[in-house]
Amino acid sequence: MSNSGRAQGMLPGLAIGVAFLAAGVGGFLVGSLTGSPEPASATEAVPAASASPTASSAPSSSAPLPTPSDDAYVAALDDSLQMGSETLAEGQSGRSDANLADGDVEILNWVETDDPVFFITIDDGLVDSPAVREVIERYQIPVTAFLTEYAVRDKTDYFEAVTAYGGSVQNHTMVHGALNDPATDVEWEICETQDRFEKQFGYRPWMMRPPYGAGPDDPEVLKYAEQCGINRIVLWNVVVTDDNEVEYWEPPIKAGDIVLLHWVDGLDKGLEMLLELGEAQGLTPAPLEDYI
Q1: Residue 101 pLDDT level (bands cut at 50, 70, 90)
Q2: Do the beta carbons of residue 231 and residue 225 sit within 8 Å?
Q3: Can you list the positions of beta strands (E) in 25-152?
Q4: What are the residue ranges spanned by the domains of the chain?
Q5: What are phi and psi of 100, to 5 degrees?
Q6: Contacts (Cβ under 8 Å, ≥6 apart) of 151
Q7: pLDDT tens digits for 261-271?
Q8: pTM of the predicted model as reported, rounded to 2 decimal places
Q9: Residue range 218-244, pLDDT digits in tens
Q10: CATH of 29-41+108-290, one of 3.20.20.370, 3.50.50.60, 3.90.25.10, 3.90.420.10
Q11: Torsion over CA of 111, 211, 277 and 126, rounded to 10 degrees?
């Protein structure tokens, strides 16, 4: 197992549908990036800085980055399925030995490694396409799925299948609430997802991706991440858009890059394109779980 580097960095009810749409499906494509373009050393955890990549190299969004309205978010909290969180401070399963040995919460934009690998991460879970599953199974792609809980409640078998090649299901919150929005119940978004995913998938996530990339170093986010069993907050430095265009901090794709995609129609084509881009650089996808 390679040493990793750390870089800086709803629902059967209509109310949840309103909340999620208010959050902005269009805004899922790219969040605000937090972190510095210089990797941390392999032995040092560096908190995310407020600086962003340069405008010429940072992935840009084709849509504004909305946050949920107060009323819609309150409606989501009134979901009849909501339960009080019973969180666990430790005892997660499925984590690597390296991760278990390093329990501090860290924020990453990419992984520092000399191995010729990159990492495929896919967000949300709205579309469970058979074509995407076929591509993943054909190439045995290791996929880390950052899932929004409301979107995947009846899709356990699908997401177990598409993460079966070294990947895993990880936390992308309950209803995609922006964690730096004062209207967002940060504890509920993070910890309730932890509890439900542990029941649904049989293990407790140890990674989280904040919706829109917003607020990864917010004190409340860090507090509840640590309290509820998350020690890696994973951002990204390459984006494959919903139109299957590639946006880089710094092209081309490089060893250690973390690529962001979404579970949308056409993802199968985006995955095949991404594999070709990696192959052109002598890179193959590897499980992010093995490196952090």
Answers
A1: confident
A2: yes
A3: 106-108, 117-124, 143-147
A4: 29-41+108-290
A5: -65, -30
A6: 10, 20, 124, 125, 126
A7: 999 999 999 99
A8: 0.73
A9: 999 999 999 999 999 999 999 999 999
A10: 3.20.20.370
A11: 130
